[in-house]
Design brief:
Length: 189
Amino acid sequence: MASRTTPWLFEVGDWVFGGLIAFNLVLISALITVGPVDTAILVSITALGCALPLDVAGISLLRLVKDVKDIIDDLTLQSFKDAGFPDIEAYFPSGPERESQRRRRATVAVWYASGIAGLSIALTVTGLVAALWYMAWWIGMVVLCVALVSAVFVVLMLVHGQPTKSEAEKELTKRYADFQARQKRGRPA
């Protein structure tokens, strides 16, 4: 599943981080004109300012991993071959091993980028709620509640959208559970 979704996550991740950067910059520019008149404004600018470097790190991470895969790995090997280095393949991993390294690198990058995105989104929502809190405390609370409800809906959709198990998969799962139970009973206590 991860191998099928990784390219999509790289593409969507660029949009997510780019959108967060734009949103944070627009909010910060508006709040700077207000100045440090209230604690809510200071919290908002601090949270949004902290989110910006995370967004840049996230988008850079995704681009770096994609570029390493597409350009650096293949281009480096081809350049050495074109230059006539003898036995250059011995210095580079084999095709299957190289693909395994690429998959591992992409998986690690997706996990890190997801963590960075989660923290950045939390900081952005904090900054937005604090800015709205400055207008009226209840506006900030309403936006926060709606954001939480939206997150719950997304999680519920992801959970309920999972494919159901086929009869063959259910049978294999049952056989594996039976096998494990037999193994446990057969072991000395």
